[in-house]
């Protein structure tokens, strides 16, 4: 699949933003006044920034409001509604925290659940596609949700929570890679079933339908970068999980001062964000759409 | 409304005969022509005369080589592919705006281009590559089964079928109602073992493909029965050419 930067940015930034909103809503940290404003500003900048970025991959962004209509069948529609409701509920909660100095517990918990649910709906957009076997399994939502929660804990400065959650996210990401690498073969779909000619011999693409490229090849048969996939996976995992855990462990040392603490935590967040970005790039670039089989490619 | 109808009154679709298709691409061209001039946004071409031409097509013809396991001769099969108007169309349910829909009256899957936001998810959901985002209009294009021809009373009756079917010089494409067991397409499917593409995807395609008849034996060594009566071809040159051959052979360096 074509790794569109707008979509990768969206899932990376919004995932982290909604993760932070979840921790704020659950009252794990309870800032008030200016402190609360800064926390909520960061969370909203990430979540809303990601959502805005996602509209750039639309052919007709001016019609984006129409996308809220089909929640009965469409995960994209559900995602849009969930995101807006989560942001509204958490917005009310933020007003209480910033201006009134109170934390409306029930509202916060509802907002936190909706925030996590938004990330779940994002994951389900990809998971629903039978046409992309690498995505069509439980490891996709497990990976999106665990990374969202781990990122939220990391950004919220919850060191003791973040370390085990990051390890959990690493396991989910690894599972997604291990299961995904075998998914196309396991799906049973090949050139034989695609053409219906498989039972009469070995099918080979002899001539493509066109001499140039087309939308299908550009969107679904993206093969650039697969050569370096193994190295990129190591880089992604290192930046997303290993480096943040090491940096967080350093902050726990008694000799580290308060300022250095903050610098290390900020570095951990940045490293994590870059790592997730790399992993999400691979999520798309490595995904094989079955339409590639018609072109003898995958 | 992008939930699918539980059943449709008619099931209009195509039968494509892989035994008959000669791979001439006439259906591709007639489809492009009709659908650029009629229903919805025109099918764009970008850089049409440049180094990297690309364009939107609703029908494309692949060619495959099938090599049987028993060393029988390979078969070349031309393979036209367009929207299969699936009964369980995954492209319809993913649409967030309701632009994609399947008609209750005849089962045709269409896009309301005024509602399409160009998110591309319907193309992602389609295993067959039947939907293409138009590079200029930025909306999703797909086969309409020539909905603006088949019911068009301004056209002569023989033209009220999809452009690809109307134009096919080999008679490899057939249009009809699969819900009617006595229709031409239902009969062809039953007689010739019409098959689904990627049945494991659970899309229940309406369009059926008729498998190519197998080649019964290797004919490459066959000799025409009249061959013995043909004048034999001289293995050795005679006359002037014979003299020239000898003369050149005796010249220095001519032996090799």
TrEMBL record, chain A:
GO molecular function: dimethyl sulfoxide reductase activity
TM stretches of this protein: 7-30, 36-59, 80-100, 106-126, 138-155, 161-179, 234-256, 262-283
Source taxon at top rank: Bacteria
Keyword Membrane (UniProt): yes
Alphabetized Pfam families for the sequence: DmsC
Record keywords: Membrane, Transmembrane, Transmembrane helix
InterPro entries per UniProt: DmsC
GO CC, alphabetical: dimethyl sulfoxide reductase complex; plasma membrane
One GO term (biological process): anaerobic electron transport chain
Name of the protein: DMSO reductase anchor subunit (DmsC)
Taxonomic source organism: Pseudooctadecabacter jejudonensis
Lineage: Bacteria, Pseudomonadati, Pseudomonadota, Alphaproteobacteria, Rhodobacterales
Automatic annotation (TrEMBL), chain B:
Name this protein carries in UniProt: Tetrathionate reductase subunit B
Gene3D superfamilies linked: 3.30.70.20
Comp. bias (Basic and acidic residues): 213-222
Domain of life: Bacteria
Pfam families linked to this entry: Fer4_11, Fer4_4
PROSITE patterns tied to this protein: 4FE4S_FER_1 (PS00198), 4FE4S_FER_2 (PS51379)
Region (Disordered) location: 195-223
Entry's Gene Ontology molecular function annotations: 4 iron, 4 sulfur cluster binding; metal ion binding
Domain 4Fe-4S ferredoxin-type: 12-42, 73-106, 107-136
Keywords, alphabetical: 4Fe-4S, Iron, Iron-sulfur, Metal-binding
């Amino acid at each position: 699949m074509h790794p569109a930067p707008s979509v990768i940015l969206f899932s990376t930034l919004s995932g982290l933003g909604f993760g932070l909103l979840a921790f704020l809503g659950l009252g794990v940290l309870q800032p008030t006044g200016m402190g609360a404003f800064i926390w909520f500003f960061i969370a909203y900048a990430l979540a809303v920034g990601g959502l805005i970025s996602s509209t750039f991959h639309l052919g007709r962004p001016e019609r984006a409001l129409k996308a809220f209509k089909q929640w009965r069948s469409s995960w994209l529609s559900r995602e849009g509604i969930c995101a807006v409701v989560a942001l509204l509920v958490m917005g009310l909660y933020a007003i209480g925290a910033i201006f009134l100095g109170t934390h409306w517990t029930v509202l916060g918990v509802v907002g936190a659940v909706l925030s996590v649910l938004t990330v779940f709906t994002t994951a389900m957009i990809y998971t629903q596609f039978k046409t992309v076997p690498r995505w069509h399994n439980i490891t996709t939502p497990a990976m999106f949700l665990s990374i969202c929660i781990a990122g939220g804990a990391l950004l919220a400065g919850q060191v003791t929570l973040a370390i085990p959650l990051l390890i959990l996210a690493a396991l989910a990401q690894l599972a997604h890679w291990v299961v995904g690498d075998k998914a196309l073969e396991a799906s049973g779909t090949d050139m034989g079933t695609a053409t219906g000619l498989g039972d009469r011999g070995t099918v080979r693409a002899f001539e493509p339908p066109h001499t140039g490229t087309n939308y299908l090849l550009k969107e679904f048969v993206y093969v650039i970068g697969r050569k370096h996939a193994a190295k990129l996976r190591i880089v992604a995992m290192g930046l997303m999980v290993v480096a943040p855990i090491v940096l967080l462990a350093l902050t726990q040392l008694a000799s580290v001062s308060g300022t250095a603490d903050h610098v290390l935590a900020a570095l951990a967040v940045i490293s994590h964000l870059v790592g997730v970005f790399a992993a999400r790039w691979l999520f798309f670039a490595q995904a094989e759409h079955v339409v590639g089989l018609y072109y003898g490619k995958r | 409304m992008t939930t699918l109808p539980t059943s449709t009154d008619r099931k209009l679709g195509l039968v494509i005969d892989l035994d008959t298709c000669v791979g001439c691409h006439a259906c591709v061209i007639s489809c492009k022509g009709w659908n650029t001039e009629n229903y919805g946004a025109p099918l764009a071409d970008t850089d049409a005369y440049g180094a990297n031409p690309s364009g939107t097509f609703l029908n494309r013809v692949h060619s495959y080589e099938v090599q049987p396991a028993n060393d029988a001769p390979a078969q070349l099969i031309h393979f036209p592919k367009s929207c299969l108007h699936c009964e369980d169309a995954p492209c319809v349910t993913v649409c967030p705006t309701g632009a994609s829909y399947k008609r209750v009256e005849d089962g045709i899957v269409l896009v309301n281009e005024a509602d399409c936001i160009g998110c591309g998810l319907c193309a992602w959901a389609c295993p067959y590559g039947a939907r293409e985002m138009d590079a200029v209009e930025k909306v999703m294009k797909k086969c309409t089964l020539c909905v603006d021809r088949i019911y068009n009373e301004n056209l002569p009756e023989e033209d009220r079928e999809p452009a690809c079917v109307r134009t096919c010089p080999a008679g490899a494409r057939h249009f009809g109602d699969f819900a009617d067991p006595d229709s031409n397409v239902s009969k062809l499917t039953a007689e010739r073992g019409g098959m689904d593409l990627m049945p494991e995807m659970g899309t229940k395609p309406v369009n059926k493909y008729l498998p190519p008849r197998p080649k019964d034996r290797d004919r490459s060594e066959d000799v025409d029965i009249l061959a013995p009566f043909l004048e034999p071809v001289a293995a050795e040159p005679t006359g002037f050419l014979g003299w020239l051959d000898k003369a050149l052979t005796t010249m220095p360096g001519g032996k090799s």
